[in-house]
Design a protein that fits this description.
By secondary structure, this protein is an all-alpha fold. It has helices spanning about 1-15, 20-50, 70-90, 95-125, 130-135, 135-145, 145-160, 165-175, and strands at about 55, 55-60.
């Protein structure tokens, strides 16, 4: 992750000073940004799985963090940031670019929903203490609205995605985004 962040910073600096290799530095910036995001998601997945410690000493191996679950969370975070960036750019742009971004929102949202479902199923199956906590009668009643709220947000995103942001921007976004 650190190497990706360094690559991102170096490429941003050198891109501004280069002429012939500007596209190469653009690709380096994209790779550094995507890599940093991916490894941030892998770190989250490894943390959710638990860090093997016995008697206050780490007992895992060097690549214990690289599991199918952590890879899934890394890819999920990439999609999440792509959706976030897409929505931010919709508010900041207009014209053809904005129309293309509108078309990207719903597919990115569907992929995000798939990741949410996979992580929500995988986590209690893998971690028995999480399953006991989630499905305990007290927690279950408190957590029950979460899937419905996610579904409501998805429906609202679906309804908002095909709209032209110029209409939305003139009403509410202009005050927030300008």
């Amino acid at each position: 992750m650190l190497a990706c962040l360094i690559l991102r910073g170096v490429s941003l600096e050198l891109r501004a000073k280069s002429r012939r290799t500007k596209n190469l530095w653009n690709l380096a910036f994209i790779g550094g940004s995507a890599g940093a995001t991916y490894f941030q998601g892998i770190s989250l997945g490894a943390y959710l799985q638990g860090i093997p410690v016995q008697n206050g000493v780490f007992v895992g191996d060097a690549f214990g963090w690289l599991t199918p679950f952590s890879t899934l969370t890394g890819l999920g975070l990439l999609d999440t940031y792509a959706l976030l960036g897409c929505c931010w750019l919709i508010a900041k742009t207009e014209g053809d670019l904005q129309r293309r971004l509108h078309r990207m929102v719903w597919p990115l949202m569907l992929v995000l929903l798939a990741f949410i479902v996979l992580v929500s199923i995988w986590t209690p199956l893998q971690q028995h203490n999480v399953a006991a906590r989630w499905f305990d009668s007290g927690w279950f009643c408190r957590m029950l609205p979460a899937p419905f709220l996610v579904a409501i947000c998805a429906v609202l995103m679906r309804r908002a995605a095909p709209r032209e942001c110029d209409v939305i921007r003139s009403r509410s976004c202009s005050r927030l985004c300008s």
